[in-house]
Amino acid sequence: MLKYINKVGFCLLLVSSVFSCAQGNKGKEIEQKTDEIMKTIDIPKQYKQEPFYYCGIYSSNVKWELFINDVQMFSHYQGMITSPIVPLNYNILQTGKQKMTIRIYPSEGKQTLGGYATFRMRLFYNQNFRDENDPEIDILSYELPYAQTKGLPYVEKTFEFEAEVPYKLIGWTKSKDLTKVPDLEAKVVAKIEQLRKVLENKDTEAYIRVVMPKLQEQFVCLYATQTEIKNYLNGLSLVNSEALEGLKNIKILPINSYQIVLEPNNKVVKLRQSDKDGDIIDGVVFEGISEETGEIETGSYLFRFHIPEGSNELEVIR
Q1: What is the pLDDT of residue 139?
Q2: C-beta neighbour count of 181 within 10 angstroms
Q3: Are 136 and 19 in contact (CB under 8 A)?
Q4: Most buried in the list 17, 252, 271, 309, measured by CB within 10 Å?
């Protein structure tokens, strides 16, 4: 079983849940450190309308990837039945035309999509995502035409849609073209090794410093309040993270059988590995024992990097 940190469900915890702090001295210590970090954060502006965009997908017997504005938003590589609702705001940098790309691949062991390949997609938004009664407004939909595609080894579809958001993010708009950066592979591996050490040492302060640039933009596009941000940071402790709840004897694994993957915009890069079952994992890999089943579960801390203009150093961006 795979467990991903900073994927869809974990991102939504920021706006849908209130993290509970550890009790006793350790809890007080975490809260004190959070208070210090809060002084360095620009609290996002709140708006009368806070639109949120989503892509609802149902699939079976296929693998697939979803990209928004040429940066991967979500992926499914197991080929089983899945039906996520993927929040898209994180890759929507500002109001205007947006690009969505879907890549669909055969399930494991197959050379073509086959007659049982199923993929349906619905793109929609809410004008104010905090309002439970706010209606969903459809933008577009797509269904894989299996009769025409069952003999194909791969299908890629690109759509454009207009989005209106009250914020404006820098994102990767001022990032270097990584195809022109010498020794990119060595830089990425060194950065991942650095982050492995931070995670192994359970150095929460160092971890938050590294990921803060992406968190700051995440807070803006999720319209996070001061209270939500503080609760979120309290839950980021590497010692007792709620994201790893249900696992014990967690180990940060060494880099193994990796490849360097550039996002289609050539401005964002990640390190991709495979676990012992052949499943694709991006970022720093860990394993732990499930407290419920006693089985070993594998997961990752997802890190993607860019190099800002005027710099030669990789920084976490998404």
Answers
A1: 98
A2: 16
A3: no
A4: 271
